[in-house]
Write a structure and sequence with these properties.
heterodimer, A: 413 residues, mainly alpha, two-stranded antiparallel sheet, 17 helices, 53% helix, globular, B: 586 residues, Rossmann fold, five-stranded mixed beta sheet, 7 strands
Amino acid sequence: MSRSPKTIWLRYFTLFQIALFASVGCYLLWYNAAEKSEQFPSLREEPIVVRPQHSKAWQTQGPFIVDDNQLKRVLQKLVLLDKKRESNVGHIDHAIRFRGILEKGPTYAVTKKEQLYGEKLRQLMLHHPTFNSQFGLGILPLLQEGPEGVRFRTQEGVYTSTHVDHTMACLAEVGTPLSHPIVLPSGKELTFGDVVLQSLADFSLNQEEYEWSAMTYALFLPPVREWKTTEGQMVSFDLMCQRLMRQKMPQGVCLGNHRIYSLVLILRVDEQQADEAKIISPETRQQVMDYLLRQTQILSNTQHPNGFWNANWPFEKPPSPQPATEGQIDTLGDRLLATGHILEWWAMAPEELRPEPFVVKRASQWMVKTIDSLTEEEVVDYYTYLSHAGRALALWRGQFPEDFLKTYDQQKK
Amino acid sequence: MNRLPKHSNKEDLSDDPDKGSLLPNLSYRWALTPSQLVLVLFFCILFLVANYLPLHSDSLWSHLTYGHWILENSTLPQEGLALPLSQGVASSSPGWLAQILLALTEKTLGTTLLPVFFSLLVVGSFYLLTKSFFHQTGRSSTTLFLILLLFLAGKSAIGTLRPEWFGITCFAAQCYLLSLYYCQEKNLFLLTPSQEGRSTMALWVGLPLISLLWMNLDPTSIFWGWLLLVALGLEAFFTNHSSDLSANRSHRRTWIYLIELSFFITILNPDFIHLHFFLTQYARENFIPEPYLAQTTIELFSFEYLGFFIFVALLGLSLRLSKLPLTFGRLFLVVVALLTGLVDSQNLLWSSAIFSFALAPYFQSVVAPLLPKRETNSDIKALDDYLNSEEEPDEIPTFVRQTRRSFKNSLIAFLFLWLVFAFSTLGGMVLGSKPRPAYQLYGSPALLEIAQKIKEEDPKGLLFSTTLWGDWIVYANRQQTSLLSEKTHNQQDKKLELFIHGQRGRLPKQAQEDYLHILAAQPGWEALLDKYNVQHVLVDIQHQKALSQQINSHPAWERKGADPQNLQWELFSRRPLQPFQITATR
């Protein structure tokens, strides 16, 4: 039986509509997938390790910054062993970054229950049952589940992270891989990669604290150079550098030093990439170099003859060798904060950004002398600042603190 | 009774001057009814009002700047112009064609004639809507009533001359085109060749063309552009226009093809999918309404909304009283129009226009018994024949006695048109009257003062101001403004940059939130200005009293100038950062 032309027409019409809608549907699916992939870039399993640069030119001068005994003394002193005062999250993530992750190591933090070292401290941050058992019930959980993964609770008391993405960046800097397990308060098991993903989902180029986000992305994203934020903004490392240089000094966390440190880290990561995988453009690299060189020049001019800087480092030399009392500018805390951070970023910076050697030596010697004079209680008070100083002194030897301690002990044996 | 002069013999008339000196040589088609006269008067007033409105809008100036930039560079911008904080934000160019048209108009005719261009858009839109109502009602008196009601309900939109008018014009053109295919007997828009032999070619060419133009002219096409087509598609789908099943099927298929054609032709857009994404997802998720611009938002229980409610009540009542069946498509339109009107006062004109377009036949069917008999084309022809015939009939035909057409009305209408021309900016230029003062053209002397001050001070770096003033500065101080983001960090090498202007939807959400935070001088506003390294702040004293007070007494900011009365604006610049001003956190 032959079909009427109208029936054939109807069949073609239906087929055409199906084909049309299927094509549109496929295209939209592809488009959405492309959008999604743009939003969350692929991450490296292991973060990039950026080691301190200890050039031959500086090596020829020997361990002129501080000698082995001074460094050993400093590292032994900078621990959180005041039994009366429990370490908090700010202490612990600084301690992890300062001393690195060791399977077994010296105790350098305490909680109500235990004296802790590297791996145990990392577990405290990433394993909620451990966190709960160490700090006790009734404390807000540090780990918060988010729509894309998990984030560290921030600035809601001493048992939360001190700055946005600070804990994440500390863990990234000591080499925590994406696959490192995390256990949430609900018992759900995730990985450290979910922390980085959540951070990417939360990130805005204009958020108030962004220094540690920038650091983490520089360690996990390359060779990816740009990604899309949930605000719809394509953020590249070039743009990130512009953002880090946007504000006047000393605005930003820790007198602007974390902005500088993040810039240095991006420069160093960029150096480590092959030519075709550079994460910043040559123009941006030059701008960052110029910018950091200006900071070095300023710092060389504003260093106190005794070797330290204070909160007014972009403007003037500290007026007096004696620190001011609490509540004023130029307290001991200001000096430790400024000088420790400055020594740290210089230690990681490319050689052409470093000051004259005597500037570093003067600062380092002041730092050792000051740490020697601190009481155990003051060490706990200033621990977060001092952790940068202690790390910096080791970095200037071309080593991380834990590497130095290992080699030092071996040499002694 | 209307006594029409009878044109019996032209030669006789010339011989006898007492025999009626103004006998018509034209067809009575050119003689206007009183309703038509009022319509002409309405359009004249509308044109003049639009012509004399100041060029005031929250985005007009940035659109013009974009237009000029596109013309100069022969390409669409890849980032938000003069908006460094939007760097990296997916840049779509909704309205690029409107921006070019505006810039071309300004370039060729000058800024003073921009209002005329807008007036033509406004009047053109209302004219097309009038025609679409007339095609559905067949009566100029009903049309007049509907258009006046529409004006009353949507007049708030007329107060702002914005590029959205391109979209409204496209919508009106869509209505007009569809109304040509309205079948009164079936109360349906038929896509089959009409009994009068009218081809559907106009619809096949016109609708896709309007869609294409609209998509490139104004982003309103994303919603309003498809609304009418979808509604009429639904109507065709759910309503049988014929007892013949296959004819109905064919009609439905045709509608579907037409809608698909109208949709897919919009792919001919520089940024098709991205534009859809930008407007439907990015803009929805990231755009934060600005309370400062609340002057354009109307409270639900206000006089402005009263017109809309009257409009809805009257037409709703006609829907109830009418015997015409309510089709699915029209019901859809009515519901959408009502909801969109209630949700946002900025939609009032759109909603009212859709409402009246959808319900015009119902309203007509209710008021029809109250109106005199409709004059048809054959009536007018008979009238012409009667007046031109040499024979005197025994009795004057009824249609001659009842007609309300009069050439007097036409003459009065002509007089109105002349007056409109004479009083318009264009007429003023032709007839040599004084040009409109700049402060009237721009709506506020403050704008001119600000532009002058910025010219004098030549500020570098980022300037914080309200959206309205940012929008003005990007236009008025274009030469001093950095349109594309600069790479330098040396303030001396920088040009002026703007925190925000009329294209504020391109800003990342955080920046929009911070903008509102600073605007309201909420605690921490100084730190936010630091965060963005804002170098200059232009304060609207009237609307930002708190910010004005606080920044005046802040040591980091120096007052650089203000308007002569110190009532409208003041400009502040950042003092060099001093050691005692440290705001760093640890």
